[in-house]
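Homework help board

Subject: predicted structure for assignment chain

Our instructor gave us this sequence and asked us to write out the predicted structure in token form, then describe one feature. I got the tokens but I'm not sure how to describe them. Can anyone check?
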Amino acid sequence: MIKIGIAIGILVTAALLMKKKDMSYRQSILKTMYPVIMWSSKAAGKKQTLINKDLVKPTASFFALQSNDINGKAFDLAALKGKKIMIVNTASDCGFTGQYEALEKLSKQFEGKLVVIGFPANDFKEQEKADEKNIASFCQKNYGVTFPLMSKSVVVKKNNQHPVYKWLSDASLNGWCNQAPAWNFCKYLINEEGVLTHYFPMTVDPLDQSVIDAIN
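My token output:
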């Protein structure tokens, strides 16, 4: 434990000394600490993953839902028929923010087969306070994000929950899953026919073999 504490201390010090121009000190530290955070939480992720083993079909069509992108323009979800879709609730000041980089790699790895969509949200410890313009700039400058980002939304179960997340977390709509995001960077996988097939918690890296297998 002492060695781990020393290693963490060194990482934090390095992050403070090498603060990135477009990041706060907190964001720099979290980016540096991301590998440690994922390593320490890996075991929990597999237990919290949910799978639609029977491929239960939704009672309401995913492709009929409405959403606006981060620039406020209508985003056509129906145009994604025939591709797999990964929906992720994101935040800029979270220990899991490093997953932006992994999500971008995943998007490129399965380009043409998978569409990753990020939904920035401030629902967990106010870890996404920025407006849409600054969120988009942060993601592009620090993690090279090119996959679609939606307007800042509420993803937890409240009266103003985004319709997409209402569908994702209500079994009466999606057919089987009542799980709302447990924290930032929870991942939902939808297949080519609009069937919700998997829920991966924040503790599962986007490039984990279980995610790759689910996409394939």
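Reply (TA_rk): Your tokens look well-formed. For the description, you could write something like this. The beta strands are 50-51, 67-68, 74-75, 84-90, 114-120, 187-190, 196-200. That's the kind of observation they're looking for.
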